[in-house]
Design a protein that fits this description.
Elements (H helix, E strand, L loop, with lengths): L4 E6 L8 H13 L4 E7 L3 H9 L7 E7 L3 H8 L5 H23 L3 E6 L16 E6 L17 H14 L3 H9 L2 E4 L2 H7 L6 E4 L22 E6 L11 H10 L4 E6 L5 H10 L6 E5 L3 H10 L2 E4 L8 H8 L4 E4 L2 H6 L5 E4 L7 H16 L2 H19 L1 H19 L1
Parallel strand pairs: 1-2, 1-4, 2-3, 4-5, 5-6, 6-7, 8-9, 8-11, 9-10, 11-12, 12-13
Helix pairs in contact: 1-15, 8-13, 11-14, 14-15
Length: 416
């Protein structure tokens, strides 16, 4: 029986980068075990992809990469900040439509899958061809909860404007047409599904947009049993990441006289403000700001931590949470958006954003839950084991590719 041909549209696609670029490549690479995969991506990604493929002699995968770029003037305008990324990406999707008219009659794919970017606000046009289309995992429907806006400071107004834009985007006829025409739509979080499911006529599925390379993020034997709570933050220091909640959690731990250490990994515009907040609260001796680390050192940080703090106010999902789980490190986060699908009660601590009446009270809830779990050695040990199992069985790239394979097969059976 001949293998089916799948065309994957992945604007962001690189084997050497994380986030959406990693999703674009790793998903395509794993699916190429079972299908003849054709990937359409930006020419900018060619060097990374070709470098990777040179190191894969005799691979059992069948993958062909096609490159598409807008005229150089557009790229220069984008790099200089004259042309917004959203506009550039939308123009690229229009160019992809023209590319499809020329090349799809030659490739003759059995199915088209729009993979990245994952934001529902910027639709693709593959449904205009007489080929079954799969969309997703789609995100972008999540908004910052009103209760958490104090954490984003001066960006609160921007978050309110974004919330209005997201609501308006639901009424975009291009968005609705794409959803109605798709044979399957995959949602990356419950908030996006809630907004858009009403327009879907095909099958509906749930899957976070990110995955984890579980062989590269592995647990290690943890020997430290000195009663000190070791916390870790990995990621960008941005308002929407909820980083300003962390010093408040640490202050609550200090008031409760519970010993702790925290390592901050990463950088960003809010780094100095977080550092200053820790210093003003007399927390500096318990804090280590490491900046960006290599992959190896980041894995070691995951392995040494008791919990990763993932306090995002607004995020489709978050690869950091999956990397932590894969290393056997439980995650503490808000019970919303992608985090609510990645982290379960047996693999971390989930706090309802509306559980407390104020930000300080919310920080106290985090501190109380951390102490309760960390001081229970049996419970915390079980969490570590369950975290690794969950990451590998549900969020590793092979596991995600298996789910997508089943979705594809279901769509293709309908066609036949």
């Amino acid at each position: 029986m001949s293998r089916k041909k799948i065309l994957i549209s992945a604007y962001a696609c690189s084997p050497l980068r994380g986030s959406e670029h990693g999703t674009g490549w790793n998903t395509s690479w794993e699916l190429a075990r079972n299908f003849d995969v054709h990937v359409l991506t930006r020419s900018k990604n060619r060097t990374d992809i070709e470098s990777f493929l040179k190191d894969q002699p005799g691979s059992d995968r069948t993958i062909t990469v096609h490159y598409l770029e807008l005229p150089a003037a557009f790229a220069r305008a984008k790099s200089h900040g004259v042309l917004p990324l959203a506009f550039y990406y939308s123009m690229w999707q229009v160019a992809a439509l023209a590319w499809g008219r020329k090349h799809l009659p030659v490739i003759k794919p059995d199915l088209c899958h729009h993979l990245t970017f994952n934001s529902f606000e910027f639709p693709s046009f593959w449904h205009r061809f007489s080929i079954p289309t799969v969309l997703g995992p789609l995100g972008g429907g999540q908004t910052a909860p009103q209760e958490l806006l104090p954490l984003v400071g001066s960006m609160a107004g921007a978050e309110r404007i974004r919330s209005l834009r997201v609501a308006a985007s639901e009424k975009n006829p291009f968005v609705r047409d794409g959803l109605r025409a798709a044979k399957a739509v995959i949602f990356a979080n419950a908030e996006t599904r809630f907004r858009l499911e009403k327009w879907v006529t095909g099958s509906v599925h749930e899957m976070v947009d990110v995955g984890v390379d579980s062989p590269k993020f592995v647990p290690a034997v943890k020997n430290k049993q000195d009663g000190i709570l070791r916390l870790l933050y990995v990621g960008k220091f941005e308002n929407r990441k909820g980083v300003h909640l962390i010093p408040k959690i640490l202050s609550a731990l200090k008031r409760k006289a519970y010993p702790f250490r925290i390592q901050f990994v990463g950088d960003g515009p809010e780094l100095n403000r977080v550092r200053t907040a820790c210093e003003r609260s007399a927390l500096a001796e318990s804090c280590e700001f490491s900046g960006k680390l290599s992959h190896e050192r980041t894995v070691q940080s995951y392995q040494n931590a008791d919990f990763v703090i993932f306090p995002s106010v607004r995020d489709t999902s978050g690869a950091v949470a999956l990397e932590a789980l894969s290393c056997g490190c439980p995650v503490v986060c808000f019970h919303h958006q992608g985090a609510a699908w990645m982290v379960s009660p047996d693999t971390g601590i989930l706090v309802n954003p509306r559980e407390a009446a104020s930000i300080p009270a919310l920080a106290d809830v985090f501190a109380r839950e951390l102490i309760s779990c960390h001081s229970d050695v049996v419970r915390h040990g079980a969490m570590r084991q369950a975290a690794r199992l969950r990451a590998v069985s549900q969020f590793s790239w092979p596991a995600k590719a298996q789910v997508l394979t089943e979705i594809y097969q279901s769509v293709l059976r309908q066609r036949s």
